[in-house]
Amino acid sequence: MPVKLRLQRHGKKGKPFYWLVAADSRAKRDGRYLEKLGTYNPNTNPASVAIDIDRAVNWLEKGAQPTDTARTLLSYRGAMLKHHLNGGVRKGALTQEAADLKLADWLKEKEAKIQAKKEGLTKSEVEAAAIRLAAEKEASEKRLAVAAAEEAEAVAEQTPATEEAPADTEAAPEEVKEEAAATTEEAKEETPAEEASAEEEAPAKEVKAEEVPAAEDTPAEEGKTDAEEKEAE
Question: How far apart are CA 202 and CA 119, in angstroms?
């Protein structure tokens, strides 16, 4: 049965996660498999690749054919190099100790490169974060400056109105005084007329008062004459 080393998709939508498996070439991509050899997570930076090198080399030596993506991952972790060195050992080109030493040196160098890449990415992220922070701070300062300028303009526009207010208040008492004077003059003009009418009415009352006693004296005199007449009789 032909065997292939290929990726099997897992994970969720938008965040795939892959298994490296040895499976029958006639099986479905995400169907049954013979053995799980490792994982591949492309969501991290750098991508996370974990492979059982010995088991992968065992399948390669049995004739399993990796897909292009699987071959790249196997080369990334040193499985293809070990398979190549094992072929040299079988042919007698080098000893097993030499092959293991070469593989260990290569893995050490590869790990150093991966670590350097991680540190570089971390440093880049820190620098990018610092740049973003500085940009945000500058933008915030600009917004504050613009707000302060607008507030100053608003205060400047309101200041003349507050200064003109006292002038209006000063003018107001003068107008009140003029109105009061006009009212007083009108009162003075109206007062003589009222006094005149009162004086005109007063003589009329006096005349009536004088007339009343005259009318009252007559009966008295008449009464006294009657008495005297009675006494005379």
Answer: 121
Q: Which helix (H) or strand (E) holds 127?
A: helix 96-232
Give the Cα separation of 221 and 13 in Å (integer).
Answer: 140
For each of the chain's 233 residues, which pLDDT tens digit applies? 689 999 999 988 889 999 999 999 888 888 889 999 999 999 988 889 999 999 999 999 999 999 999 999 999 999 999 999 998 988 888 888 999 899 999 999 988 988 888 888 877 777 788 888 888 888 888 888 888 888 888 888 887 554 554 545 454 556 555 666 666 665 555 554 444 444 455 444 444 444 444 444 444 444 445 545 555 54
Among 33, 75, 34, which residue's Cα sits nearest to residue 57?
75
CA 4 remoteness from chain centre: 55
181 occurs within a structural domain: no
Is residue 107 situated within a structural domain? Answer: yes
CB 30 within 8 A of CB 8: yes
Q: How many structural domains comprise the chain?
A: 2
Claim to verify: residue 7 and residue 61 sit in the same structural domain? yes
Contact at 8 Å (CB) between 36 and 19? yes
* Domain end (from 61, 94, 127): 94
Supply 144's token pair: 């504050």
230, part of any domain:
no
Tell whether 139 and 71 lie within a shared domain.
no
88: containing domain: 1-94
